[in-house]
Amino acid sequence: MIDKICTFLTNRIRKEMPEIDDEKAEVIYYGLQNIVGEIPKVFIMLAIAYILGIFKLALFTFLALFAYKGASGGVHLKTHLGCMIFTTAFYCIIPFVSQYFVLPQLIKYIVIACVWIFGIIMIKLYAPADTEDVPILQSKVRKKKRILSYITFTLGLTVALIINNNTISNILILANLFQTITITKFIYKLTNNKYGYEVYGNTSIETV
C-alpha cells in the first residue's frame, strides 16, 4: 500500500515537473517511502511516550536522529507490527534509559570517540543501507547520502560532547550508536534483510 502511494506521488511530481530525471525521482521516491511509512508509527510511538511521561524526550530523539537516519538507512522488519514495535522501543527506551545514568567527563569523551570511530567505519562500509523493497542504485545518490551520513552523525556526537544537559547528551550518544548498528551486515542477517544493491547488482556503487 505504501509502495503504491509513493509511486503515485512520485509520478504526479514528475508529471508536474518534467525536468526531474530518474536519479532525482529515485531520491524523491525514497524520501516519500520514509515519510509516508513513518507517519503512523511516529504517532503511536509518541502516544506511548506520552503515557510513559517522556513525550518531549522521545520527540527530541526522533527529531535529532531524523537527518542521520534518513541518510544512512537501516533495516526494515518484515511486518508492519514488528516495525511498529521496533520503532516504539527505539524511540522510547533510549530517552527513558538516558535519564538514569551519568557518565564521568573523561569516560564520556572516550565513549563518544569510540562511537564516532565505529560509526565512521560502518558508514563507509554500509551507508546508505538500503533494502530490497527500496534499493538505492544510483552511485551519485549513494555518494550524497553517505556524505550526509558522515556529517549528521558527526554533528550529533559533537553536540553530545559539548552540551551540559546529561540526559540530552546520553540520548544523542545512544541514538546515534544504535542507528549506526541498524545499518550493519550483522543486523541485516539477524533480521533476514538484504541490501538492495546486493540483490540488484552493485556495478553502479561508488565508494567515498
Give a structural overview:
By secondary structure, this protein is mainly α. It has one domain (2-200). Helix content is 75%, strand content 0%. The protein contains nine helices and no strands. α2 packs across α4 (80-98) and α5 runs parallel beside α7. The longest helix has 31 residues, at 22-52.
Describe the structure in brief.
With 208 residues, the protein is mostly helical.
Question: Features of this protein?
Answer:
single chain; 208 residues; mainly alpha; disordered C terminus
Total beta strand runs: 0
Number of domains: 1
> For the CA atoms, what is the radius of gyration?
18 Å
Residue ranges: pLDDT <50 for 5 or more in a row? 203-208
The largest sheet, given as strand count, sense and whether it forms a barrel, is: none
Query: pLDDT average, as an integer?
Result: 89
Total number of helical segments? 9
* Percentage of residues in strands: under 5%
- Distance between termini? 35 Å
Structural class: mainly alpha
Residue share in helices? over 70%
Topology as a string of helices (H) and strands (E): HHHHHHHHH
Shape call = globular
Please describe the topology of this protein.
Blueprint: H1 2-16, H2 22-52, H3 55-72, H4 80-98, H5 105-126, H6 139-162, H7 166-181, H8 185-190, H9 196-200
Helix pairs in contact: 1-2, 2-3, 2-4, 3-4, 3-6, 3-7, 4-7, 5-6, 5-7, 6-7
